[in-house]
Amino acid sequence: MNIVVVGTQWGDEGKGRVIDLLARKVDAVVRYQGGSNAGHTVVVDGEKFVFHLIPSGILHPGKKAIIANGVVIDPEQLLKEIKDLKERGIPVEKNLYISANAHVVMPYHKDVEKWEESLRGKGKIGTTGRGIGPAYVDKVARRGIRMGDLLERKTLEEKLNLNLKIYGNLLGFSYSKEEILEKFLEFGKKLKKYITDTSLLIYRLMEEGKDILFEGAQGTLLDIDHGTYPYVTSSNASAAGVCTGCGVSPRSITKVIGVAKAYTTRVGEGPFPTELKDEIGTLLQERGNEYGATTGRPRRCGWFDGVALRYATRINGLDELILTKLDILDKLDKVKICVAYRYKGKVIQDFPNRFVMWRECEPVYEEMDGWKEDTSKVTSYKDLPDAARKYIKKIEEIGKVPIRLLSVGPQREEMFTAP
Ligand code: IMP
């Protein structure tokens, strides 16, 4: 089986836990897009691990952890993660593989991003500040530095010459070429043993009939093409990103699993039709501990958006959904699900595809009774309160996708199957 796990909202759906759980059943876990803007925490036997780049599958003995070509890599961050894992006894050298064609996040990417955000003023994207957007800009502009280039002084120097001219002469940033060159060649030396042709590696694994999990970072609504542009990240976070991001055929994907939180959150700026700026929003934020894993920023919170889920089902071709953090809603008298939008007085069923529309859309809600019971310790679907089961059924109906797994509470064991 070759399974893709994608976020169906604006990221932070709890994919980390889901991936950690599914990783036990596969032979390799692959990251296909994004960079150290992503962040997830996995707790194993009370020990906390924070990952930004390395797939958390690395924690499972014998599983390959692959960072494919679609990812943009900050080598300093990657080396930090490797060091941390090694110090804690994880055999990274045996299981980590990095694509020679993954692009490198350079110091000027972070500087230019900061500058551009300041130019945007009130219209800023609210990025994670990790240089992700500018790194992808260089990739598309065909001047990007790839991981494999860190192994060849001449190529790296040539590319740096061009880039520093562009960032220096055109944008006015000034850097010491020698300093960057030596620093990044040193990164290359340290990472050489991991750098390989990951497309071929994945192909060979598939040929051997191994099971592979493709781990999406961020979420469908942050996809560069299909998200709420321009308030998105700079890669294809949806399932389609797997093919270009790994060099695998669309025919090889056997299953696409979406992950959604039982309510909605968004970190950074941009449209969010079901956002709650009241005490319920605050309650969700506090009970759900909704603070960004990478930047620590408080996440904006709101009701579940069924229109957005239906969109994610369509864009990704979801086979099934995993619903997380249901217990965060336990204390509410009433819960609401957005079932359509109202735009210029008209009710629309489909997720709009233009910025002005997202901004002006008003959610049409269906209100349901809350369950007012502690579900954080529930371990089977039949033990959920009736009202919670109705809520889950409604999400399935609106989102046009069956829910297969549910999670409550912070431990990875606390996940159970829906009927
Ligand atoms: P960037 O990816 O740093 O360029 O940020 C672009 C947008 O994506 C911002 O709104 C970020 O907050 C958001 N974003 C990026 N990565 C994540 C993530 O892992 N979770 C949630 N939001 C993210």
UniProtKB/TrEMBL annotation:
As to how many cofactors bind and how, the note says: Binds 1 Mg(2+) ion per subunit.
Enzyme active site:
12 (proton acceptor), 40 (proton donor), 139
Q: Which residues bind substrate?
A: 293-299
User: Where is GTP bound in this sequence?
Assistant: 11-17, 39-41, 299, 325-327, 407-409
Reaction(s) catalysed by this chain's protein: IMP + L-aspartate + GTP = N(6)-(1,2-dicarboxyethyl)-AMP + GDP + phosphate + 2 H(+)
User: Where on this chain does Mg(2+) bind?
Assistant: 12, 39
User: Where located?
Assistant: Cytoplasm
Q: Which domain of life is it from?
A: Bacteria
Q: According to its record, what are the GO cellular component terms?
A: cytoplasm
Q: Which UniProt keywords apply?
A: Cytoplasm, GTP-binding, Ligase, Magnesium, Metal-binding, Nucleotide-binding, Purine biosynthesis
Q: Which cofactor(s) does the record list?
A: Mg(2+)
Its GO biological process terms? 'de novo' AMP biosynthetic process; IMP metabolic process
The UniProt record gives the binding positions of IMP as: 12-15, 37-40, 128, 142, 218, 233, 297
Provide the GO MF annotations for this entry.
Answer: adenylosuccinate synthase activity; GTP binding; magnesium ion binding
SUPFAM superfamilies on file: P-loop containing nucleoside triphosphate hydrolases
Q: In which pathway does it act?
A: Purine metabolism; AMP biosynthesis via de novo pathway; AMP from IMP: step 1/2
The similarity annotation says:
Belongs to the adenylosuccinate synthetase family.
Q: Say what the protein does.
A: Plays an important role in the de novo pathway of purine nucleotide biosynthesis. Catalyzes the first committed step in the biosynthesis of AMP from IMP.
Q: What is this protein called?
A: Adenylosuccinate synthetase
- Organism annotation: Aerophobetes bacterium
Classification from the root reads: Bacteria, Candidatus Aerophobota
